[in-house]
Amino acid sequence: MIELHHVHKIFPNGSRALVDISLHIGRDEFAFIVGPSGAGKSTLLCLLYREEFPTSGEVFIDNINITKLKESQIPYLRRNIGVVFQDYKLLPRRTVYENVAFALRVMEVPRPQIRRKVYQVLELVNLAHKAKCFPTELSGGEQQRLCIARAIVNSPPILLADEPTGNVDPDTSWEIILLLEKINLRQTTVLVATHDKTIVDSMRKRVIALEDGRITRDQQVGGYDRES
């Protein structure tokens, strides 16, 4: 499903974000990417939906080398990848319903299908009753659930979440992670970049640890720290 072959990423200022990353994520897997700030977690996710481009190496999604895609092909790649951003990136002047429906409208999905799909995912994330609200009227946890709804409305086979619990309280963090696990059980590959030790230790999923842009550990069932 996802493969990286000897990927390096060096930014124009000379900073090495990723160093010789080789990785395979299977279909329907759930994996945490952990490490301190600046370890390369967000950069790794950005490479997967072509927000960033590797300095060298190759990135494959479903056997397609996305490092060789033309700019015109990138929107089609992103239709198959849902992204939950750390800073939400919600449209403040659009309602909950409109935020989720936006991508489907761009894809010219028929209106009846849009309504059905939007309400299906709003029910999943327990926000159907807030469909007419604006993002500023939602709590932090509700905004994050809205981000998840928007990311999965097109039923993408891959979901990437960058620090999805970073801006919410511990109880809401659990709600978010359990929702991501539920989505994973619906045959979606889920990658979560996080520094939330409590959640990683409790979930006992695959853990890929980064430090200074390098993979230092890859455990099929692991905790946040090597000794966990």
CATH architecture of the largest domain: 3-Layer(aba) Sandwich
Assembly form of the protein:
single chain
Number of alpha- plus pi-helical segments: 7
Going by CATH, what is the homologous superfamily of the largest domain? P-loop containing nucleotide triphosphate hydrolases
Tell the overall outline. Answer: globular
Rg, please? Answer: 17 Å
- What fraction of the residues are assigned to beta strands by DSSP? 25-35%
Biggest sheet statistics = 6 strands, mixed
Tally of discrete structural domains: 2
Q: Structural class of the secondary elements?
A: alpha/beta
Please list the strands of the largest sheet in the order they lie side by side: 6-7-8-3-9-10
Task: Report the CATH C-level class of the largest domain.
Answer: Alpha Beta
The ordered string of helix (H) and strand (E) elements is EEEHEEHEHHHEHEHEE
Question: Which runs of at least 5 residues are low in confidence (pLDDT < 50)?
Answer: none
Helical fraction: 25-40%
Straight-line distance between termini = 28 Å
According to CATH, what is the topology of the largest domain?
A: Rossmann fold
Number of strands: 10
Q: How confident overall, as mean pLDDT?
A: 95
